[in-house]
Give the backbone structure.
Amino acid sequence: MVEPVAFVPVPERGRTYTGRRRVRWGDVDRHGRLRLDALARHLQDVANDDTRDLGHDHTAPWVVRRTTIAVEVPPALGEVLELTTFGGGLGSRWAERRTSVRGDGGGRVEAASVWISVDRTTGRPARLTEEFLAAYGASAGDRRIDARLHHPPPPAGADRRPWPLRSTDHDPLGHVNNAATWEPVEDELDRRGVVPAWAEVEYGDAIGPRDEVTLVSDRDAAGTVRTWLTVDGRVRASAVVHPPT
């Protein structure tokens, strides 16, 4: 059962930004499907491009709390993607960035990410600035969102295996980048022969360069795959993936 997520439509008023990316060899699996980790990088990049286009500080720290993706038609190798991004909702210290993806070969994806604003000095969540609200408030409207985590803990009988980290997984904030967190999800989907139709990753806590990570995974009778990245038995990130119905 796919969890209900409100992918609000592209707004008629307020700011939107559209960027373009081509699906290249390094973005696809061996069947030519755009991987979730590559899609997450495209989402991250177009968000950064939007920030630059506004003239905001593109180095201001934000961390992803949750990303939800609905793959209506998987984009394929060679497609040119048009990614339209906008503010989809607001909280006191976080905001939702909605992105609608359309490919010139028919690919269709909807995505929503909850990003938390972080104080550069303290590392704690920071209130959204007036500059940010002026840019994205109109498109977000009065829609309020939360940043709570909803995924369950791993069951006792779930599969477990080490997930070695690489230096390339980490970003300037000193933890595994949100896009790299999708890579173990893709690896587990490939092992289990599952093609994603709906996927969500929740980020509970940062994974550092020296952490020893265990990948925990489980699949239910309906084909839904769940994964957890744990350090010393504590969940740092989790994912749920539904196959096509």
In short: The CA atoms of residues 67 and 113 lie 4 Å apart. The chain has two domains: 17-140, 159-242.
